[in-house]
Amino acid sequence: MHITNRSYVRIQGIIFQNYTTLEQNYVLSQGLRIDGSSSFVEFKYNKFLRNHEIGPDTGCCASAHIRIWGPSNNVWFYGNELGDLWTVFGEALTADARAQYITVESNWVHDTDQIAIDMHGGTSNYTIRGNKLEYISVKRDGTVWYDKPSIAIYNDGANTGVMERNSVSYAGVAFEALSEPGQPSTYGVTVRNNITAHCLKGVVLGTWYSNVDGSSVSRLRFFNNTFYGNTVALVVRPMMSTSVSWENNLFANNLITYVNWLNWNPGNADYNLYFGGGMGPGVHVIKSDPLFVNPSVGNYTLEPASPAINAGDPGTPTDVAGAVDFAGNPRIAGGRVDIGAYEVQ
């Protein structure tokens, strides 16, 4: 499907399925494309199922399964299902080429081989909210596609975005914000009130593309996220550390909580809770069981006696913490923000 230079369009209740493509000569295969001056385009309650790029993982073959190209703007992708997708060297849903005001909300993305949601190439003013992502580059048998863990929600050279109230499980990496070589700088990204469980890595702060230069990554804010049962919860890489903050996050039952192989300045880290898997940095930290209601069934709400209640940074700005928590309840109750994705009311 191709929407070009069109505005005020809604596509609803359509099933796009069983499409197979074999890319040839490094030409990008595309499924749904929105481009030109298109604006105020809505995709609601559609299904994108069993669409496969069948080429080899050699760098030649990529499917741009769903791609929004700038200067398109004000695109709302809501309530859709994306499942059993093979993109090989691509992504399931991407905004690119300085697209603006992109909202990806309340979708279910599952069983895809590579990156799930990607804000790319100077895309700005985006919101990724309330999505459920599972089995992203990780198969249900526990093996990894192409032996290369990939990312559920990715910022690659985008800026001024919010990732909030998403649930990510069984992914290679849940959240990552950086600039690959040749991409614009990454800045102004807020990741808050999300739950990450059973991923190989929860979040990567900084760039993988240099061990000594973090100038392309700045002004990241990671607040009030819950990390449970991940192999590694948080990895620090080169970035402009003094502009990066991570506070009020809850790390529990991860195999390894914190990795910083380069001894890079981890940024402004404080008021986090660490339980199991080792410690991370900070002065005002909690080192005890957060007392989840029932984590074995994915219930990460806090019991009334939880040490995470009213234990977050008392100076947390409301515009950083967000108006509501993971469940949609008021974010700050009792006069002080709780640690983690849930706020006890």
Question: What does this protein look like?
Answer:
It is a single chain. The protein is built from one helix and 33 strands. With 345 residues, it is mainly β. The protein has one helix spanning 318-321, and strands spanning 2-4, 7-12, 15-17, 20-21, 29-35, 39-44, 47-53, 63-69, 73-78, 81-86, 91-96, 100-105, 108-112, 115-120, 124-129, 132-136, 151-156, 159-164, 167-171, 173-178, 186-192, 195-197, 201-205, 217-223, 226-228, 232-236, 245-247, 250-252, 256-259, 268-270, 273-275, 292-294, 299-302. The chain is globular and about 55 Å long. The termini are far apart. The model has no long low-confidence stretch (mean pLDDT 97). Helix content is 1%, strand content 47%. The chain has a single domain (2-304), classed as 3 Solenoid (Pectate Lyase C-like). Strands 3, 4, 7, 10, 13, 16, 19, 22, 25, 28 and 31 form an eleven-stranded parallel beta sheet that branches. The chain has a ten-stranded parallel beta sheet with strand order 1-5-8-11-14-17-20-23-26-29, with no helix packed on it. Strands 2-6-9-12-15-18-21-24-27-30 form a ten-stranded parallel beta sheet, with no helix packed on it.
